[in-house]
Task: structure prediction
Amino acid sequence: MSGNFIDLFAGCGGLSLGLIEAGWKAEFAIEKTKDAFDTLIHNLSSNKIENGFTWPEWLPCENMTTSFLLDNFRGKLENLEGKIDLIAGGPPCQGFSFAGLRNPNDPRNRLTEEYIEIVSIIKPKYLMLENVKGFQAKFAKSKKDEPYSDYVVSRLENLEGSNYKVFTKVLPASSFAIPQPRPRFVLIAIRNDVLSNTSIKNIENEEFYSKILSAAEEYKNRNGLNKDFTPLKDAIGDLEVSKNGVEVSVDNKSFNQISYKKPRKINPYLKLMKRRAKGNYKPDSLRMARHGEKTLEKFNYFIEFADKGKTLSKEIRKKFNIKKQCFTMLSPNMLSTTITTLPDDCLHYSEPRILTVRENARIQSFPDWFEFKGKYTTGGPRRKEECPRYTQVGNAVPPLMAEILGLFMKKLSEEV
Result:
């Protein structure tokens, strides 16, 4: 029998998708923003995918916060004690992200407290928490001035009535065949009474994660993936305009999109991206940005003279008066830069354009059948309320990484 899970701070469903592919059964997910929730439920409900979300009758199938869940459904959560095997989740990471201004006391980071409170009520067998590596930043309110991750570990290890053995490590997504570095803080916790019945009851932290990385290598070998890393071209090479041409966007007639033609031969990474896709299924979110003439001239210069796989040199930035220091000229034979929520952080390796949402999704390992809902971008005050497609993809847990972690945890759960 498959173990089941709930997903807190679920975003558009990257972590949930990976767990579902690994054989875990989805019960419900909590996500604050409507756009991301719409994407999740559109793709991952039980009538769309095996083991997808069934949703309990007592819980509205709509976007909500964990605070709202606790305030309005605490009694229902208490009834779930002993009935949920895994709680997954990645509390919002903006206060810890190296991509922005790190602030461990950002109010959004207090959402981790709500995660812990829900854990203390339901008492699942397993926990899986993913965050940016900045999650290990110093926690100013701690008397010990300890990393925030250590504070969270201490809380989980000392939960009244259900304490956990906690394993933590920063792992590069590239070790899981994801074509980008994306170092992520991964926390896996096992309830102590469950751990005592497994073969790893006396295992130490480093050995635990060594086993996970070994499982990742086995997965790559089993699926014919590059054992060292997945080069960017394996993920998005079939989406080049030069191979497909363009057509009017189905989302907005004032834009063009890549006119996708399925290649005759596909590499092992693309085989995974095309699982469940039927026939000549055409992926969505292929709309291209509208670049002005001067921008196109600048981008063509970068393609010809900038070093591939590196951020722009000081000389080039000075030549074009570019303030942004993190703009990367991608290389087809290397890893992509880490995908963020901003669409203009990198340039295609051979075409004068930024990447499409679908290309970012491929780099994140979202399969082609997975469709994104909402706007492509947004700005100004609306950024606080809306979660456009680029943001959904950039915030997500790579599904392939989640799948490998889920397979590891599923194998472990079968020992109990």
About this structure: The longest strand covers residues 164-172.
